[in-house]
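Morning F.,

Quick status update on the modeling queue. The single chain you submitted on Monday has been processed. Sequence for confirmation:
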Amino acid sequence: MKRSVMTAVLAAVVAAWGVSAQEPVATFSILGYDPATGEIGGAVQSRVFSLNGVLVGEAGVGVVATQAIVDVSYGPKALALLRAGMTPEAVIKAVWDSDPDPVPEQWTKQGRQFAVVDATGRTAVFTGPKASVWAGHRQGTHATAQGNILAGEPVVAEMVRAFESTTGHLSVRLMAALDAGQAAGGDTRGMQAAAMLIVGKGQGVWLNNDEVLRFQVDDNPEPLKELRRLVDGWNERRVKGQLRAVKPPA
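Structure tokens below.
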């Protein structure tokens, strides 16, 4: 595809998201692993209409978040490399190095930000030098928080602190991290969308379902409040045994 055509396509796509091709998607996210259940997941909040493609995951493999100057192909590529046995750090390097940077003038790879957690809880994260400030990340035990156009480093620091100090299901811990990030200043452009994804081998509802939960809140003035409602309601049903996975016979 010629660069002029690619630029036009990119502009149309991001316009549909409610941003211009020159305007990065201000976002903060948390990825985490629960060694007690084997579940891995992520949660994200952004000043953008919808968060399609930002979080991808596969049970027994890993979860990936891609944000800032977004290339959503990073998620599937990273999962494929994790599936092949690469470490999260090696995956981060391989995916970024292989990026051809097709529209450097308006959507440069130097501004990409993405994070990986694998099925054993190992994490890796990259923040490009041209991601809009404040941009950065903080890693913890089985967790990584990252964001761009944030109020400052306390946002990601508080997210990791909240994740590690909160008890309960992985969804509760991820939600606590988002709330803590917002309380620390969050995205300086405000809130608009949020999402959460958790996967685990055979841990979803019904038979042969690895997707524990997938929530997405689009174009909402209080996306974290709505996401919290979904998480709380889901956990109430889980405690009552209404979300029990169906196990195949041995």
